[in-house]
Amino acid sequence: MYVVQSCCKSIPTVAHRGIGFCRTTSVRLISATSTKFSSPGREKKLFTPGPLSVSLTVREAALRDLGSRDVEFISTVKFLRSKLLQIAGVSENFYTAVPVQGSGTFAVEAVFHTAVAKSYGRALVLENGAYGKRMGKICEVLKIPYHIESFPENSKVNVRQVEELLMDDPSFSMVAVVHCETSSGVINPVVELGQSIKRLIPNSVYFVDAMSSFGAVPLDLERGHIDFMVSSVNKCLQGIPGFAYAIAQTEQLLQCKGNSRSLALDLCDQYDGLEKTGQFRFTPPTHCMLAFCQAIKEFEQEGGVHGRAKRYKENRRILQEGMKKLGFEEFLGPEHDGYIITSYKYPKDKNFNFKTFYSKLNEKGLVIYPGKVLNADCFRIGTIGNLFPEDFHELLAAIEEVCKEMNIMLPIT
Ligand SMILES: *Cc1c(COP(=O)(O)O)cnc(C)c1O
User: Fold this and answer.
1) 3-class DSSP assignment, residue 97
2) Per-residue pLDDT averaged across 346-351, rounded?
3) pTM of the model
């Protein structure tokens, strides 16, 4: 019925999806081991920034227990860490990948814990949306001295303005910024920023949250002088949620020993454990790691960063054209060409109500997301995850139908 694969062996060529097959099979799987606790719910398509849709084959790869002392597990950890560096396009001689249990925010917080010096550290957070603001919140909670520099949510972080700020006040030991600000879809110029930051404050640590872009939007860590970059398994690499990871400049990381105010989120300690024993310090997400091995195989079969970008761009193109035809207006101007997620303004039609709109789409098995920008009423549609052009055609047809049911005039004016 389903095949359980050992993760480090060569891959059979599997279709990335086969949705019809996928729905019936997953129902069968669940009913075969039917429990009192969960009913075999309907499979949904997630047009969201996370959790994201993942393939059946990725989910199947998790259907196996594996002990954490098992040699297979230890080699799996090693395999994944080195694959992540390969995907990031950096050398094992200079960079290291450190996985952290939990969602993406755990890795963001771990970097602040680890990379901001306890005694003299001061962070500069550049924000133009909710995820940047969250970094400020983390500094607040960790009692890290910081300055948050805000930029409009519909524009990129301005390099010139950052340069002026740093010339005025170079007393920062870390600068942090989000690559793709998932609340709006803006892609920040993180490489250019890194070059300016290292020119003006060469001894600082540069931290990029590339959570929703890693694996689909090319990013040159070396050229951008990025010391720490974080992402999670359940974004563009399409694994099942369970852990996140930092890709760190090894020398920088080694200098961070003793900084962390947290034991569980100490990247240095986690790194030491992984290097010395090949083990996580605390219970590892074994099933999730097995699934991630399969996710990486599918990522490579699709052609890596390039292949994934191609599909996501096509998803976004279909969405953009279709929504435009229906009269929906994007939150961002045409100068933004990110293809991870798109924010749409609520139609002005008095019959529009987001809750109803959302629920009606949800009933059709299509999940969109509320907006997250402060200065406009928006909803968001993600183009990442295990979604294909036909899914966007389906979504667009459903949106049209729902608008008609809600008596919203089309095209929206
Ligand atoms: C998804 C995401 C995160 C992590 O959010 P979690 O809810 O902790 O997974 C952080 N930053 C960005 C830019 C994201 O898109």
Assistant:
1) strand
2) 96
3) 0.91
